[in-house]
Amino acid sequence: MLHAAALTYFREVARARSIRRAAASLNVAASALNRQILKLEADFGTPLFDRLPGGMRLTTAGELLLRHVSETLHDFDRIRAEIDDLKLARSGHVSIAAVDSLLVDFLPRAIDRFRADFPAVNYTVTAVGPTDVVQMVAAGEVDFGFTFVSGTPASVRFLAEVPAPIGAVMRADHPLASRLVVSLEEASSYPLLTQTGPLPRASEVDPAFAAFKDALTPRLMSNSIQMLKLAIMLNMGVAFFTRLGFLSEIEAGTVAWRPMASPGINKLRLGLLAPSARAMSPPAEQLARRLADGLSRLGNEGAGYMSGSF
């Protein structure tokens, strides 16, 4: 196995085309550097340089090795930088704003996993409306946030996205649970539960669903997803959410989520929103990176389910 020092010596000789100049650049003895090059050539059983009056020139074998060395040292530097980031991220504070469906399952579990590696980090997590998430991230009031994907100012960008259509959520033994897709007309035949507040701006692609929701006379309306979740479990009616707030219940088979037969609402996506230029603190950067990975995995695992393929 080649050591990083030997690779660095080899790369510098290839760049400087001289043992002496490379040694001066690296601040090592020319004799020591030459021994490393000779040892590499002995290990490979072939010359890596042509020794010419004008200096050292890579052989074909040397050029192959240089490509490998450049990739290896680049990866080494990247990993070392990530390790340095981990050291800096051991303590600190992370602030997050998110639509509340992310706060009941996905985010608490993700933070719990993160704290195993970073036990000294503290958190502030705030449930706000989709538009408020964008404003808070853009203004620097929070480190990052989760909201529905739509047009955003240049000061923010989405690090990861996942399909997040709004579907019908009901207890697993509800009559509509036997359907693969639920139409607006079918849903309106049962008591309905709704969350207060406007629909995500991205839902403007589906005027039919927006009009349907505006015309509802709900059995129960609340701004608390936890209350609506309990109302669903008590079989009080059907609600409309993304499945992300009901992952555990869906997996346990106590709640059913079914896509709506309304094309626009099935195009909704939810993403991790971060500042475009403003640097995040080391713990926020580390957590955002893990959340982006987790969101991508969630999208891959749930793609078939979200599209209505059961």
Features:
3 domains; D-Maltodextrin-Binding Protein, domain 2; 11 helices; alpha/beta; single chain; 310 residues; 45% helix; five-stranded mixed β-sheet
Description:
- The protein is of the alpha/beta class and 310 residues long.
- The protein has 3 domains: 4-87, Arc Repressor Mutant, subunit A; 89-163 and 269-306, Periplasmic binding protein-like II (D-Maltodextrin-Binding Protein, domain 2), CATH 3.40.190; 167-267, Periplasmic binding protein-like II (D-Maltodextrin-Binding Protein, domain 2, 3-Layer(aba) Sandwich).
- Helices cover 45% and strands 20% of the residues.
- It has 11 helices and 12 strands.
- The protein has helices at 4-16, 19-26, 30-44, 60-88, 106-117, 130-139, 184-187, 207-214, 225-233, 247-252, 282-306; strands at 49-52, 55-58, 91-98, 120-127, 144-148, 156-163, 167-171, 193-195, 220-222, 239-241, 255-259, 269-275.
- The strands form 4 sheets. A 5-stranded mixed sheet has the order 4-3-5-12-6, with helices on both faces. A 3-stranded antiparallel sheet has the order 10-7-11.
- Helix 8 links the parallel strand 8 (193-195) and strand 9 (220-222).
- The protein is elongated and about 90 Å long.
